[in-house]
Design brief:
This protein has 13 helices and no strands. α2 runs antiparallel to α9.
Length: 294
């Protein structure tokens, strides 16, 4: 089996995992509140990432990285997973999965505009055009095509979903200047986030949960946070063409709608497909123009 074939296998496995998480969020939030889901998912992910670090014999590097970059580690860990997933879970708790999930994919647009401020990058006309197309798709999805009824939709949920894209974009901008090894950095982020997640759960909720809720939280910790990250990293490392691998991500939101319909039983509105096509086309156009410019 060639390295490129293995790269595709890991990438497809990751895309399939990501395609199920919107459904997993909604199912798990039937049994847990957002604080409980954050704690148990973070604990699961931290455990898996620590095990991966031990297996790769990088424990000494982990300790050294924390000593050298403890401020960065605390900031990154509080941003993601702590604050990002807290906001994202609350958005999913308020919105139908078919609304929250496509909005979450607009983070690349948020990152393009934030890069102007924090990374001093120039903005392209393509970024503005892509933003217009993507956010038009968000409006179509949020209103289900009934623009007169925009105020009747859960605006708080939509705002939280959009805010989560800003948090995720902020995290990746922080990553641009992160000198830590990706696995080490992610592992440290989850380790430092765990006390914060524990405190939030202790203050605003409780640790006693049903088995179904625990199963869902473990699934989220594995297939949204830790294993998916490890598989995607392997795919990018093995691939001779990262663009081809990266483009597979755009299959995920469409596959996700299938799981949302079959498992959650949500009726997928035609406007959801239309809005999602707007978002994906905007992102693909932005990606193509940036590749062309470079």
């Amino acid at each position: 089996m060639t390295k490129q074939t293995r790269a595709y296998i890991f990438a497809i496995a990751t895309v399939l995992a990501w395609s199920t998480v919107a459904t997993a969020f909604k199912l798990t939030l039937r049994y847990l509140d957002v604080f409980q889901l954050l704690f148990y998912a973070c604990a699961t992910s931290a455990l898996i990432l620590v095990i991966a670090t031990i297996l790769k014999r990088q424990v000494a590097e982990l300790i050294l990285a924390f000593r050298q970059h403890w401020r960065l580690t605390i900031l990154a860990g509080l941003l993601n997973p702590c604050l990002y997933y807290l906001v994202l879970f609350e958005a999913y708790d308020r919105l139908p999965a078919q609304v929250a999930q496509p909005i979450n994919y607009t983070w690349a647009i948020a990152m393009a505009f934030m890069s102007i401020i924090f990374l001093k990058q120039k903005i392209l006309v393509a970024d503005i055009a892509a933003a217009f197309v993507c956010y038009a798709g968000v409006v179509v999805i949020a209103t289900q095509g009934d623009f007169t009824g925009f105020l009747s939709s859960d605006l708080t949920g939509v705002a939280l979903a959009l805010f989560s894209t800003i948090l995720w974009a902020s995290y990746w901008i922080l990553n641009v200047k992160d000198p830590r090894d990706p696995l080490i950095g992610m592992c440290l982020n989850f380790i430092v986030a765990l006390p914060a997640a524990t405190s939030l759960c202790l203050l605003y909720s409780g640790f006693s949960i049903p088995l179904a809720g625990l199963t869902g939280a473990v699934y989220v910790g594995l297939f949204e946070m830790s294993l998916a990250f490890l598989c995607w990293s392997l795919a990018l490392r093995l691939s001779s063409n990262t663009t081809r691998i990266s483009n597979l991500v755009f299959l995920s939101p469409f596959l996700s709608l299938i799981f949302i319909n079959l498992i959650l039983g949500e009726e997928i509105f035609g406007t959801t497909y239309i809005g999602l096509i707007f978002i994906v086309c905007g992102l693909l156009y932005q990606q193509w123009k940036h590749s062309f410019e470079s």
